[in-house]
Design a protein that fits this description.
Length: about 180
């Protein structure tokens, strides 16, 4: 199935579809914790303004690489879509929420990819480990800095490249039930 065909296919509600590194299309259901975590991040983004450009599960163009539809992203206020998508150069922050099936992709593949494209801040939100990893200082192969914060440790201010601050409330992130894995 081609990328174009996949992008124009209607998949069942509650599923996330992404391309694996080996070219396979992966379709996985979202957990309640995954969905609630994204909603929590969206609520925290309201402090940036009601009309801040915050997107979830929307494709972003990464030339010469597979496009991505991150769980959560903040783009520059002056960003203009090219067609239906933003370009990677407009992205200030990307966050991926770890699920059992996406852990390797979120921690390894996405860290390398987003760093290579110069995404200023990449955040891995892991409900199963109850921690958030904030990657900054992108390089050609990943990020120079990675700082880990535990759930329940208060508000985490994250500086954006445009001078604004996105504050993630670590006390409000949902935790999965132990048997939900």
């Amino acid at each position: 199935m081609s990328v174009d065909a996949v992008m124009h296919t209607e998949f069942p509600a509650g599923y996330v579809v992404f391309f694996g590194t080996d070219g396979k299309v992966v379709m996985t259901p979202q957990s309640e914790e995954h969905s609630s975590t994204i909603r929590s991040m969206q609520i925290d983004s309201l402090a940036l303004g009601r009309h801040a450009k915050v997107i979830s599960d929307v494709y972003i163009d990464f030339p010469a690489d597979e496009n991505s539809a991150p769980d959560f992203a903040i783009v520059r206020e002056d960003a203009q879509r090219q067609g239906k998508r933003y370009g990677f150069e407009d992205v200030l922050l990307i966050a991926e929420v770890v699920s059992v099936s996406s852990a390797r992709k979120d921690y390894d593949d996405c860290t390398a990819k987003y760093g290579r494209y110069g995404i200023p801040v990449y955040v891995v939100v892991d409900p199963y480990a109850a921690e958030v990893v904030v990657h900054t200082q992108p390089t050609g192969s990943g990020y120079i800095a990675a700082h880990t914060y535990k759930y329940g440790s208060g508000k985490l201010p994250i500086e954006l490249a445009d001078g604004r601050t996105y504050t993630l409330d670590l006390d409000e992130l949902p935790r999965p039930e132990l048997d939900a894995r």
